[in-house]
Amino acid sequence: MHLTLDLDSEVPIYQQIRDRVIEAIARGEAREGDPLPSTRQLAADSGINFHTVNKAYDLLRQQGVIRINRKSGAVIRRDPTSGPPEAAFTEEWEKRMRVLLAEATVHGLDGADAVGRCQAIVSRFHAERGAIP
């Protein structure tokens, strides 16, 4: 899995790492049981502090996406084939989605366009996931 980070972005690097891992799982590039690079390796490869990577991995662990243990390191715990989401996830996700949709409304994006864009993104994830053996 290749993670592209924008070191000049206003989005914190740890959040970019978290987001790129989530997107890789959604696209099928990373599947349940796949290992992630060690924090030190990813930090060295990206030219960032390993504590930044550690913060991203800890966030992914708290969100139930990866598991971390001393022997195997960080491993993908959940992918789209793992079954339905937990209720706590759905509730938190809806809160975040509400803010994103409020931003879209404030900037003049109407409901139909917002829904259409969401459907297009989800469709791309499904298409990309299906294209990977």
Short description:
The chain has 133 residues and is mainly alpha-helical.
Q: Characterize the quaternary organization of these chains.
A: single chain
Q: Structural class per helix/strand content?
A: mainly alpha
The description of the largest β-sheet is: 2 strands, antiparallel
CATH-derived architecture of the largest domain:
Orthogonal Bundle
- The arrangement of helices and strands along the chain is HHHEEHH
Strand order within the widest beta sheet: 1-2
Number of helices: 5
CATH class of the largest domain: Mainly Alpha
What number of structural domains do the residues give? 2
Number of strands: 2
The average pLDDT value, as a whole number, equals 92
Strand content: 5-15%
Rg (CA only): 16 Å
The CATH superfamily of the largest domain appears as Winged helix-like DNA-binding domain superfamily/Winged helix DNA-binding domain
- Can you tell me the overall shape? globular
Question: How far is the first residue's CA from the last residue's CA?
Answer: 14 Å
Low-confidence stretches: none
Helix content: 55-70%
CATH topology of the largest domain: Arc Repressor Mutant, subunit A
Descriptive keywords:
133 residues, Arc Repressor Mutant, subunit A, 2 domains, 2 strands, globular
Characterize the structure shown.
By secondary structure, the chain is mostly helical. It folds into two domains: 13-81, Winged helix-like DNA-binding domain superfamily/Winged helix DNA-binding domain (Arc Repressor Mutant, subunit A), CATH 1.10.10.10; 84-131, no CATH class. The chain contains five helices and two strands, in the order αααββαα. The protein has helices spanning 13-27, 39-46, 50-62, 87-106, 111-131; strands at 66-69, 73-76. A two-stranded antiparallel sheet has the order 1-2. The radius of gyration is 16 Å and the shape is globular.
